[in-house]
Design a protein that fits this description.
Mean pLDDT: 93
Number of helices: 4
Order of helices and strands: HHEEHEEEEH
Structural class: alpha+beta
Radius of gyration: 16 Å
Largest sheet: 6 strands, mixed
């Protein structure tokens, strides 16, 4: 087994795709064609489907500011764990009414990195329940 710096691969993904200016086209060079993201137990399969998912997700958040908090890998670099957070304003995330409410989302992503250095799978969990509740609570208070 060859050890690789998979943390650098994941950090490059975060920096190019999720940090401003967002560049979803970087997905073409960073993820495998048969890439899978498992988000909330649902699979999005293929590089193109994932890219569309990212573009749609990013369109639902104004002023997104992404931060990678902590990233580390296993011994051979085939798995990477990453904690992250972002802030932004609601533009319809999670099927809510776009209302500009400021929110913070935190999450953990577990990545599979192939021997070719391409990202192959991402299992992501985030505080969606809390974000959804905060957006609705702000709407109920008419704070936007």
């Amino acid at each position: 087994m060859t050890k690789r710096d998979s943390v650098a691969i994941v950090e490059k993904f975060w920096n190019e795709v999720w940090k401003r200016p967002h560049n979803p086209d970087a997905i073409d060079e960073l993820v495998a064609e048969d890439f899978v993201i498992t988000s909330g137990g649902n699979d999005v399969v293929s590089r193109e489907a994932f890219k569309a998912w990212v573009v749609d997700f990013q369109s639902k958040v104004y002023d997104m500011q992404f931060e990678s908090i902590d990233t580390f890998q296993n011994q051979d670099g085939s798995r990477v764990a990453s904690r992250w957070r972002f802030t932004g304003r609601n533009n319809g995330i999670m099927c809510t009414e776009p209302n500009g409410v400021l929110f913070e989302m935190t999450g953990i992503a577990i990545w599979e990195v192939g021997p070719d250095g391409l990202l192959r799978h991402n299992w992501v969990e985030r505080n969606a329940w809390e974000v959804h509740g905060n957006i609705h609570a702000a709407k109920a208070k008419n704070v936007f």
